[in-house]
Every structure is written in structure tokens, then in C-alpha cells.
Amino acid sequence: MWKALHQLAKPERLYTLCGRFVPWLGLISAVLLVVGCVWGFVYAPADYQQGQSYRIMYLHVPAAIWSMGIYASMAIAAFIGLVWQMKMADLTMAAMAPVGAVYTFIALVTGSAWGKPMWGTWWVWDARLTSELVLLFLYIGAIALYNAFDDRRLAGRAAGILVLVGVVNLPIIHFSVEWWNTLHQGSTNMQKTIDPSMRTPLRWTIFGFLALFVTLTLMRLRNLILQQEHRRPWVAELANKGSNTQ
Fold first, then answer.
1. Under 8 Å CB-to-CB from 99, ≥6 apart: which residues?
2. How high does pLDDT run on average in the chain?
3. Spatial CA neighbour of 115 closest among 174, 52, 184, 51
């Protein structure tokens, strides 16, 4: 395991490995999202209580799930970067942050759109909604801190500390519907409470959002590696090879 991690810590090797996975992951995410969205928005039946408005869950639920999953992944990368001083871990954390921020924004917007017909208002200072908004601010704060320093090591350390401190918000988001009396519906047992005709396309979109996150993260990570290693001979060789093929 440690040998594999140290191999991935080499920028040139990580850049090449990411490039191999990006096309396949992009294709997988496109297939999953197209099938899931078409199935969910067009062919799934209307809900007996919410009618057609429930269909927004095919965007809201995956975005909300992975808004927390991405932040947890960032915390793991931040911990590795702080403890073992692996600069590629800091870059990985930085690559995840914008994707996580967009997912969190999508979760908030779609949640508000879903809440309007259900609650009669676009926004309430509900525990789940408020803690999700705090998560968005944590993403923005991590992005801002990482870009506030010219020293990449210091930038990674500052952003990593913020990310690790912000982990406390994840259980608050998850358990908020159980700890407080909120308007947001409680935790859903997907296997028992959602009909298979609605549940199956939801699972397609959940995995589609995951594949899209990994694809976008690897693409951004490759760009960050090039920015950080632009003075290295292998980057110059890569640039010359690209110019010769044009």
C-alpha cells in the first residue's frame, strides 16, 4: 500500500495515470447520467403525493450525497498531506474542492426548488438546509485559502487544516433531521420507501454523479500538476511533443 502511495506521489506518474482513466470515466458518467435522467424525468411514474415535483430528486439527492462524500474525500487527502507531507495529496484536495462546491450549490438550489411546492417557500433556516449552506462556505473557504498563498506547501497546509476542522459539519448535516425538529424529510431507506420504478433511475444518477466527480477531479488534477511542475523537464518534453503533433 505504502509503495503504491509513494508511486502516486510522483507528479509525472500521477499525471499519466489520470490521463488514462479520464476518457473511460467520462464515457461512463455520460451513460449513467443520460440513462438515469431520461428514465427518471420521462419514464418513471408520478408520485401519488407529490405528483411530478418529486422528479427533482434525480438531481437533488445525488448532488446532496456527494457534496458530503467529496468533502470527506478532501479531508482524507488533507490528512495525508499534513501527516506525510505529500504535495500530490494537497493538489488532489484542491482539485476536488470546486467540484464539491458546485455539487453543494446544486443540492441547495434543487432543494429550494423542491421545497417551494412542499413547504410553500423557497428557503427556511432549517437545520439540514443551514448546515448544507455552511458546507458550501467551507468549500469556498478552502478554495480561497489555497489560492491566497504563493507558497504551495503553505497553501495546502492552510486549506487542509480548514477542511479537517470542517469535518465536524458532516455528521451535523446527516443527523440534523434526527437531532432537531425540521421541515426537511427524515433519512430515507431507499430500499424500503422508494418504489423500484423510481429507485432504479435514482441509483443510476447517484453513480453518474460519482463518475462525473471523479472525471472532473482527475482533469483538474492534471492541470494543477502541470501548473506546479511547469519548470520540470518532463513538462517541457510533453509540451514539445504536443506541439510537434499539431
1. 70, 213, 216, 217, 220
2. 89
3. 184
Mean per-residue pLDDT, 46-52: 84
For residues 163 and 71, the answer to whether their CB atoms sit within 8 Å is: yes
- Per the structure block, which three cell numbers stand in for 209? 454523479
Question: Whose grid coordinates read 429507485?
Answer: 199
Sign of the torsion formed by the C-alpha atoms of 41, 46, 52 and 56: negative
Q: Is residue 190 helix, strand or coil?
A: helix
DSSP state string for 104-150: HHHHHHHHHHHHHHHHSSS----HHHHHHHHHHHHHHHHHHHHTS-S
Query: Does the global pTM surpass 0.90?
Result: yes
233 is written with which cell numbers?
Answer: 523537464
∠239-245-246 over CA atoms, to 5°? 95
Number of residues written out for the chain: 246
Collect all residues with Cβ–Cβ distance below 8 Å to 41 and sequence separation of at least 6. 55, 58
Residues 187/192/198/199 CA torsion (nearest 10 deg):
80
Is the pLDDT at 5 greater than 90, yes or no? no
